């Protein structure tokens, strides 16, 4: 009998690992994910949000295996490996400070993950490529799936507008944060997808299930991911890290705790003691007002304030909010935004931005 392990997942129940997947989860690269919080500093607002990239990766693998079984996909091993490894390159605190780490290294978590899977510098010592090769799994195809390469059949299952990554994190994040949004019926979605020429097509009867997915995604952004206090804490961590670049090594090998050990003690105590900056300015976004705000805070020390735009300017367009989904209706494929007023309305709500300034001790900003 083959050796196997079962991980008891609070969202999906028991998840069985054997063969290459059992070996992968025991590697140092994968075990590091136990110490990377899924939602960064959101636990300061939602106390239950202490779940990690490790358990999310387990759940994503579980769903990929379920879909691969249901549709009898021929490249299932590569798809399952990509699902398990899709977050292997996440730096500490997940997305919270990733833009800063990208500025430092030229890599985001997707590029770091690709290099870990391929064994490329600075991850030439990665154990992942050898395991994949030993089991006849094409590591280049795995990396291509992780990079959403449309040339690989059904790569959108792992990274696309309807993917197992999102089906897991929406359910997991909403459960751990204790919010009612985020409910996703992945079994129903499975039933309304039709595999065709290496991609999945949504049948007309599947419109309500896909609407529910998109609506819950947008509501989670509004209620959790872009919560102003979470964003303030993230801004404070960014400020702290900018002052200690020389003390930080390869961030894609570090954990949350190791990063926190690198920042100045005063900043560490502020963040971990939840002595967060107070919001003193909140106005609707415009380019003119942003220039006015920047001018007003120019005389302040950078470590004494957080300036943010919520939602961020880069978070816009159908591809970013993943609404590029077509519904097959009457033989034609129609964008969901053309047939769903609900989706159109909620997408528009994400364009309603505001400028936030938070300061230490709530000190007011002259002229604002």
TrEMBL record:
SMART domains: HDc. It holds the Pfam family HD_assoc_2. Transmembrane segments: none annotated. One of its GO terms (biological process) is dGTP catabolic process. Gene3D superfamilies: Hypothetical protein af1432. GO terms for molecular function: dGTPase activity. This is Nucleotidyltransferase. Residues 53-155 form the HD domain. It comes from Thermogymnomonas acidicola. InterPro entries: dGTPase-like, HD/PDEase_dom, HD_assoc_2, HD_domain.
């Amino acid at each position: 009998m083959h050796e196997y392990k079962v991980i008891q997942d609070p969202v999906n129940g028991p998840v069985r690992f054997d063969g290459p997947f059992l070996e992968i989860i025991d590697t140092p690269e994968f075990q590091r994910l136990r110490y990377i919080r899924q939602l960064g500093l959101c636990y300061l607002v939602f106390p239950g949000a202490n779940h990690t990239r490790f358990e999310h990766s387990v759940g994503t693998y579980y769903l990929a295996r379920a879909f691969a079984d249901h549709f009898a996909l021929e490249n299932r091993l590569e798809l399952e490996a990509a699902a398990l490894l899709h977050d292997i390159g996440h730096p500490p605190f997940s997305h919270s400070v990733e833009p800063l780490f990208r500025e430092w290294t030229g890599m985001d978590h997707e590029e770091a993950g690709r290099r870990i899977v391929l064994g490329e510098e600075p991850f030439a010592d990665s154990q992942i490529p050898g395991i994949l090769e030993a089991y006849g799994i094409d590591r280049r195809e795995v990396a291509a799936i992780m990079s959403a390469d449309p040339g690989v059949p059904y790569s959108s299952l792992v990274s696309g507008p309807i993917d197992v990554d999102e089906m897991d994190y929406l359910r997991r994040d909403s459960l751990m944060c204790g919010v009612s949004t985020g409910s996703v019926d992945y079994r129903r979605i499975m039933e309304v997808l039709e595999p065709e020429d290496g991609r999945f097509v949504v049948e007309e009867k599947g419109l309500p299930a896909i609407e529910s997915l998109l609506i819950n995604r947008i509501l989670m952004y509004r209620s959790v991911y872009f919560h102003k206090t979470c964003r303030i804490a993230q801004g404070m961590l960014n400020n702290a890290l900018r002052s200690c670049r020389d003390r930080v090594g390869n961030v894609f090998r570090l954990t949350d705790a190791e990063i926190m050990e690198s920042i100045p003690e005063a900043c560490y105590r502020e963040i971990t003691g939840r002595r967060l900056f107070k919001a003193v300015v909140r106005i609707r976004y415009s380019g003119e007002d942003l220039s006015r705000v920047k001018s007003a805070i120019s005389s302040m020390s950078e470590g004494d304030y957080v300036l943010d735009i919520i939602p961020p300017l880069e978070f816009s367009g159908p591809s970013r909010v993943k609404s590029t989904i077509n519904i097959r209706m009457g033989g034609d494929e129609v964008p969901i935004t053309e047939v769903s007023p609900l989706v159109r309305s909620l997408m528009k709500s994400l364009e309603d931005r505001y400028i936030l300034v938070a300061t230490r001790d709530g000190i007011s900003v002259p002229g604002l």
